[in-house]
């Protein structure tokens, strides 16, 4: 991880979180969610239905496997980032915020009918923080820190936040949930790359193809 690349990534992340902070401070969570929910359409339903899958563990495993073709160090950083963020999120969900309601449960007794996307399994509780948001940013921020091209890094960061936003669009979380989850994922990613960059064992700089070379 180059210092200039890290500075660029941190700057972009700062802008994203600043923007989210302004929205959260200026509007009630109900207003934010209903505004996003009203912005629906068949094309967007399909787009966010599939995009949210990039926050799943299966996608993380695939990215880690691909990273092994470059350097084991990269795959290890991805794994540490994902696992550490997931552990923190699950601890907060179950030990601290177990009664936090998901949007569908929150609006159930208000008479407001949310637009729900077919095929999405809706839950009632364990809304805060968002696990998918944490996982997505844990992976995409690591990748953004490792690539050399800033436009590619920017694309990766936008993709990560788009996955987080999909959780609000799909009425799985409120905006505050994805803010907290994304923040956890970003911190886990940065610390994971920072830590693994200090490892000096030759093995971590090898890749899976090295085992097949004579």
Summarize the structure.
The protein has nine helices and no strands.
What does this 3D model show about the protein?
The protein has 214 residues and is mainly α. It has a single domain, classed as Vanadium-containing Chloroperoxidase, domain 1 (Up-down Bundle), CATH 1.20.144. It is 66% helix and 0% strand. It is built from nine helices and no strands. The chain has helices at 3-26, 29-38, 42-51, 57-67, 72-96, 103-106, 131-146, 150-169, 175-196. Helix 5 packs antiparallel against helix 7 (131-146) and helix 7 (131-146) runs parallel beside helix 9 (175-196). 37% of the residues are buried. The mean pLDDT is 95.
Q: How do the helices and strands line up, and which of them pair or pack?
A:
Elements (H helix, E strand, L loop, with lengths): L2 H24 L2 H10 L3 H10 L5 H11 L4 H25 L6 H4 L24 H16 L3 H20 L5 H22 L18
Helix pairs in contact: 1-8, 1-9, 3-8, 4-5, 5-7, 5-9, 7-8, 7-9, 8-9
Spatial gap, N to C terminus: 30 Å
Oligomer: single chain
Overall mean pLDDT? 95
Q: What would CATH call the architecture?
A: Up-down Bundle
How many H/I helices? 9
Described by strand count, sense and barrel closure, the largest sheet is: none
The amount of helix comes to 55-70%
């Amino acid at each position: 991880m180059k210092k200039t690349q890290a500075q660029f990534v941190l700057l972009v992340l700062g802008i994203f979180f600043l923007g989210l902070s302004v929205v959260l401070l200026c509007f009630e969570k109900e207003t934010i969610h209903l505004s996003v929910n009203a912005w629906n359409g068949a094309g967007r339903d399909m787009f966010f239905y599939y995009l949210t899958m990039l926050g799943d563990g299966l996608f993380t495993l695939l990215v880690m496997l691909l990273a092994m073709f470059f350097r084991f160090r990269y795959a290890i950083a991805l794994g540490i980032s994902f696992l550490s963020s997931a552990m923190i999120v699950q601890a907060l969900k179950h030990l601290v915020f177990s009664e936090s309601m998901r949007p569908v449960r929150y609006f159930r007794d208000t008479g407001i009918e949310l637009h729900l996307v077919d095929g999405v399994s809706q839950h009632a509780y364990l809304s805060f923080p968002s696990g998918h948001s944490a996982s997505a940013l844990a992976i995409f921020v690591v990748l953004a820190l490792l690539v050399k091209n800033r436009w590619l890094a920017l694309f990766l960061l936008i993709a990560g936040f788009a996955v987080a936003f999909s959780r609000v669009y799909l009425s799985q979380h409120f905006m505050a949930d994805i803010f907290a989850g994304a923040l956890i994922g970003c911190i886990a990613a940065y610390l994971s790359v920072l830590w693994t960059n200090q490892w000096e064992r030759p093995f971590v700089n090898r890749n899976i193809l090295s085992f097949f070379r004579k």
